[in-house]
Write a structure and sequence with these properties.
By secondary structure, the protein is α+β, with helices and mostly antiparallel strands. It has five helices and six strands; from the N terminus they run H-H-H-H-E-E-E-E-E-E-H. Strands 1, 2, 3, 4, 5 and 6 form a six-stranded antiparallel β-sheet that branches. Strand 3 and strand 4 form a beta hairpin.
Amino acid sequence: MKSITKVLALSAIMAITTGVNAQHRVKHQKVYKKTVAHRQSLKSLITGNVGKYAMMDLNLFRNPVFMARFKRTTGADYKELVKNFNTETPIVTDGELYKFSACKAHDCAAYRTDVYYDPKTDRLMITNTVGDAPHSYSEKGKLYPSDTLKGM
């Protein structure tokens, strides 16, 4: 009788331990996947996702690689730009530069932001138009998007 009790007790402990280890492995895998996604270069993140939306599909404003560069490039205007990045367009390219845009919800004419990325030089440029007044924020020098890309 004692040996059956010991076997049942050991089986219960192993089942609990195995379940805990399995839960730990699943949790660790989720953390690992999240970390790998955050380490992904800006180049692969943008160039590999043409047709997808920066916020809705890729959640770029929660990606530390993108956010650090966006914040450093836009400086004091960072919070205002993020706050008004509402109605967005998908990532597009003209073959050289990549672009995605967004504007203030229900008021695109009053507040629009375009984000350009050059994968060859790994440079980011953000243009912001409030009313008729455009402003440009450049990382490592200005980019010159084609008229085709500007119109996309």
